[in-house]
Structure formats: C-alpha cells, structure tokens
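To the wet lab folks,

You asked to see what we're planning to order before we commit. Fair enough. Below is the target structure as tokens, and below that is the sequence we designed to fit it. If anything looks off to you, flag it before the synthesis order goes out.
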C-alpha cells in the first residue's frame, strides 16, 4: 500500500472524489487542509498550515506527499525526506500565484497539470491528468422533472452559469452581456441562472434542468463543470480557455467562442438546436477510474525517482 499525505487548500468535491478513487485503488490518504476561510486567508493561516503538515509528517510514516494546488507546495517541499507530487489546478499556475507554483514545480519530483496549455506554461516536464468526473452521478435526467425540482419555469429557456458571480476570473458580467445579446434572437424567454454553493449531489439536477451551460472564464485548467455538463448531455458554450476546445471537440450542440458576438451566436444555436447532444459519449473519457490509473502511474514514477512524461 502506498501511504500518502494529501495537502489541499480547500476540500472541494473533485478533490474528495480523487481521494475516494485513490483509496479504492489501495492508496492510503491522510488529508491536511489549509485553515481559515478560502475567500480570505492570511499569511498566518499558511504558517499554521505549515505547522500542521510538520506534525502530520512526523507522526506517521508516509511514502510521498501530494500537494494539491500550488500554494500547498512550499509546505510539502519543506520536508526534504519524502518525494513530492505537485498537482496544479489552473488558477495557481495561470493566475496571480503563477510564479510561486512555477518555482515550486522545479523542486517537485512529479508535477501534474490539468491541460496541455498548463504543461506548455511550465519550464519542465509535467503529466497531464485532468480531474475525473462521476459519470454515474452526472447523467441525463428528464428535463421536466429536473425543472420542477429546482423551481424553474417550464416555458422558458434556461442558461446555467456554474460559478460564484464574485469570482472575477469567471467573468459573470460577460455572461450577462452574452445572454442579453442572445435574447434578441430567441423567441422564448431566456433566463440566466448563476448556481454555486449548492450540495454537489444536486448539481446534476440543475444541469438537466438547463438548456445550455455558459462558461465565460478568462482562464481555466480543465473545468469539471464542462465535463459534468457533457456527461448530462447539456450543450456547452464556452470561451477557448484551458482544454475546453479539446473537451468540446466532437460534442455536437456545443460551441466555443472567443468574442461576445461568437458566444451569443453559439448560445442562440445551442438553444435552438433540435439535434440530440452527444456530450455524454465524449465525457466517458473523463471517468474517475481513468484518472485514478494515471495518478497511480505518477506516484510510481515519483517513488522510483523518475519523471512521468505528459
């Protein structure tokens, strides 16, 4: 059994799924999270986190340390005994914390990124292992029943924005502009719904209640929301960030647009499309088991002192 110390900023659903998959494959996972509010952590919170990591590392025997998100990497690298795997999620490399993540990546034994775009941004080797999704949980449901469950009007067209509107990199104001432009070309009433902070198990119901998912992000790694929407056969209209163009390649009824006009045009087409979406077939490649296999390969390489190629 491989014994791992998992470091994470926030225990998000996709991270919990990662832990579950690893443990199903015989990997022991002890999780230490950064204390404090994820929306306003201080330097003191990361000092306390470092102390927690040292206590955990000294109290048990671990084979390796897996730092999930770049800001956990300094604490992982501060213990020089065990191999370190660093997973970068997107904003930690492509956003404000990029210099920290890039520097730490040079000292990690293995680096995992979510997309080829992220791998190209690093000065070194990295394994591309996107977060997997639960294709049993995220699956098509009758739209009428889903709309009744979430309380949406059955006569309108519904566009889902799957993020907190306060996250600047997700650019909710742009989503509002795009939907406003689309309304001019759609006969039905079009409603935009920003859904965040709901229990993860209810997200498939919201996706099945919607007619399209709109992603207007300025940057992404490999957004799970897009993969989950595809698994629900929900059309996706998105900016060409991260691996989104690859995710949507071959998924009928989904579209990529770089400008507001292109996004609005894609949204109008998605709302009017009478064809059956094929996103679920595309989403099968992003299952949890496949992600688990690839992470195990990364762990093996770290323990052998090698480098896993992208």
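Sequence we intend to order:
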């Amino acid at each position: 059994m491989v014994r791992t110390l998992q470091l994470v900023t926030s225990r998000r659903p996709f991270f919990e799924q990662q832990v579950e998959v690893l443990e199903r494959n015989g990997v022991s996972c002890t999780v230490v999270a950064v204390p404090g509010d994820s929306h306003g952590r201080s330097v003191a919170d990361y000092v306390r986190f470092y102390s927690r990591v040292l206590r955990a590392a000294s109290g048990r025997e671990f084979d390796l340390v897996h730092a999930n998100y770049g800001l956990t990497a300094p604490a992982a690298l501060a213990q020089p005994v065990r191999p370190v795997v660093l997973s970068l999620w997107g904003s930690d490399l492509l956003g404000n914390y990029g210099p920290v993540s890039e520097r730490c990546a040079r000292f990690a034994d293995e680096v995992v990124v979510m997309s080829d775009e992220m791998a190209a941004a690093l000065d070194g080797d990295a394994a591309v292992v996107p977060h997997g999704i639960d294709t049993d949980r995220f699956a098509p449901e009758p739209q009428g029943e889903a709309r009744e469950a979430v309380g949406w009007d059955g006569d309108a067209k519904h566009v889902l924005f799957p993020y907190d509107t306060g996250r600047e990199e997700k650019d909710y104001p742009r989503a509002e502009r795009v939907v406003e432009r689309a309304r001019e070309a759609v006969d039905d009433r079009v409603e935009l719904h920003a859904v965040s902070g709901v229990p993860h198990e209810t997200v498939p119901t919201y996706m099945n209640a919607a007619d399209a998912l709109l992603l207007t992000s300025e940057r992404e790694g490999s957004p799970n929301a897009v993969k989950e929407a595809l698994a629900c056969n929900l059309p996706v209209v998105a900016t060409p960030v991260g691996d989104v163009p690859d995710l949507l390649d071959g998924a009928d009824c989904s579209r990529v647009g770089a400008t507001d006009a292109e996004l609005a045009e894609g949204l109008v087409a998605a709302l009017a499309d009478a064809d059956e979406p094929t996103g679920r077939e595309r989403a099968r490649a992003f299952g949890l088991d496949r992600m688990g296999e690839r992470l195990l390969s990364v762990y093996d390489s770290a323990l052998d002192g090698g480098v896993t190629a992208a």
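Structural context that might help your review: The two ends are 25 Å apart (CA to CA). The longest helix spans residues 43-59.

Thanks,
Computational group
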